[in-house]
Amino acid sequence: MTCGFNDFDFLIGQWKVHHRQLKSHLPHTKTWHEFPGRSEVRKILGGFGVMDENIVFEPRGTYRAVWFRTFDTSANCWSIWWYDGRTPARLAPPVTGKFEDHIGTFFGTCTIDATPVEIRYTWTRQDQAPRCEQALSVNHGRTWETHWIMDLHRIA
């Protein structure tokens, strides 16, 4: 299946989120911390976008964040932006990609501690319990380290 306008419809609604995140990602660590969150997802832009409003109860402190996803009909792909309330003057660069079967894969770049990093989001589409994994690569995608896993559980 190719990327399509309704790819993220499975996320519309309210969710409890179980976060599992590496305590640090550069330098690498294998120590994870787990924490809860909540998310409410709705369509925006007349259906050409999807927005998640999130509350993240991280051990270092609760914060709010937003995912913006927009569908580009000419490229037949999605762009995804992360806006973190802890840094309100900064919008992270987007990742772009599409779904094939029930897996959405989205790639982009970012900088962590002055190091250029490739970033990959992988969405597993499931109606009642979708998953998003975020992975980083410091070697141009030859190897990836998953550093954040979000398991969603529908509440409405």
Percent of residues in helices comes to: under 10%
Strand percentage, roughly? over 45%
Number of helices: 0
Question: What is the H level of CATH, i.e. the homologous superfamily?
Answer: Calycin beta-barrel core domain
Rg over CA atoms: 15 Å
How would you describe this protein?
With 156 residues, the chain is an all-beta fold. The protein has a single domain (9-154), classed as Lipocalin (Beta Barrel). 0% of the residues lie in helices and 62% in strands. It has no helices and ten strands. It has strands spanning 13-22, 32-44, 49-58, 61-72, 77-84, 95-100, 103-112, 115-124, 131-137, 145-154. Strands 1-2-3-4-5-6-7-8-9-10 form a ten-stranded antiparallel barrel. A hairpin with a 2-residue loop joins strand 3 and strand 4. The radius of gyration is 15 Å and the shape is globular.
Keywords:
mainly beta; Lipocalin; 0% helix; 156 residues
Please specify the SSE layout and strand pairing.
Layout: E1 13-22, E2 32-44, E3 49-58, E4 61-72, E5 77-84, E6 95-100, E7 103-112, E8 115-124, E9 131-137, E10 145-154
Antiparallel strand pairs: 1-2, 1-10, 2-3, 3-4, 4-5, 5-6, 6-7, 7-8, 8-9, 9-10
